[in-house]
Amino acid sequence: MKVAEMYTSRADPSQRLRDDELDLFGLTHPGSVRTENQDHFLVGTVHPEVIVHGTSLPDVNSLPLRGERLASLFLVADGVSGGDGGSDASRIAAETIARYVSSTLRSYHAAGTSDESKLLESLRAAALEAHRAVRAAATSRRDGHAMATTLTLGLVVWPWLYVVQLGDSRCYLLRNGELAQVTVDHTVSEIMVETGKMSREEAQHSPMGHALWNVLGGRSSELAVDVYKLTLECDDALLLCTDGLYNMVPHEALQELLASRQCLTLLLDARLLVVLALLDLG
Q1: Phi, psi (5° rounding) for residue 21?
Q2: Which letter does DSSP use for residue 209 in this model?
Q3: 10 Å Cβ neighbour count for 262?
Q4: Which helix (H) or strand (E) is 185 found in, with range?
């Protein structure tokens, strides 16, 4: 399980958020069943930057070498393969996404404009690149086992949030004390609910809830990439997590803890969520 959150708070909501107004933190834990943690996360911000390799200037530190924040990035990948394949798959996916994002800086300026399709296409392309990288790594394994991982990727180009979804890790949005699930799980049970073959309550207890039809890697070259777009507000909170958290902690408990964050530090929030999951309050 892991937690990747962003909290925002400011006096003037009409202005773009500064770096010091973002509260970011991530945490991962293997849980109480497995000895190996097959999950990986990434939380970061993206900036244009100049790396100085040599200069005659007397005070290079005074130069504006790092530009303003272009975007904030949140990523959760949960390995679903056996053995160490799951851990390798989630690591490769996270590394590939990070490299791809750093090479497509220009597309961020298209956010919220009529040219936004370029940004959406770059997000889908990043997922496809990670998919190919995981599948390529699997072909070099001696055991011949497929490698696969979920991926939930959040990209904030203020005030817009773009979420890329594959698998059953999730993105939640907390607004005005209400916690809402942004993403839709790529599970067989979710398809059955959408087609009216199973109720939402039945799906919560169905073994089909663990059957994924869409993941990064795996044996299929086909990939369905869902991309969601939301407009954020100041004081919104984002939670990206694996099923190791939301399967163990009831929705109401997640909402209550995150809604009370004004009296907690972000680090404490994340640790409390892990403790609740280990206690298995579901």
Answers
A1: -100, 0
A2: G
A3: 8
A4: none
Asked whether the beta carbons of 178 and 255 are under 8 A apart, the reply is yes
Give the mean model confidence (pLDDT) for residues 59-73.
Answer: 81
Which carries the bigger pLDDT value, residue 108 or residue 8? 108
Q: Greater confidence, 245 or 18?
A: 245
Q: Is pLDDT at 188 greater than 60 in this prediction?
A: yes
Q: Residue 178 pLDDT more than 90?
A: yes
Three-state secondary-structure class, residue 258: helix
Confidence of residue 213 (pLDDT cuts 50, 70, 90): very high
Cβ-contact 134, 89 below 8 angstroms: yes
Of 130, 208, 135, the closest CA to residue 168 belongs to: 208
Question: What is the CA 268 to chain-centroid distance, rounded?
Answer: 20
CATH superfamily of 2-9+17-45+67-181+213-277: PPM-type phosphatase domain (3.60.40.10)
Among 232, 226, 221, 95, smallest CA distance to 169 is for 226
Of 74-83, 120-129, 133-142, which gets the smallest average pLDDT? 74-83
Question: Across the chain, where does the E strand assignment appear?
Answer: 2-8, 22-28, 39-46, 71-78, 148-149, 151-157, 160-166, 170-175, 178-181, 216-217, 226-231, 237-241
| E strand residue ranges, 222-280 | 226-231, 237-241
Answer left, alpha or beta for residue 268, where phi above 0 means left and psi between -120 and 50 means alpha. Answer: alpha
Average pLDDT over residues 243-264: 79
* Beta-sheet pairing, 237-241 with 2-8: antiparallel
Reported pTM: 0.83
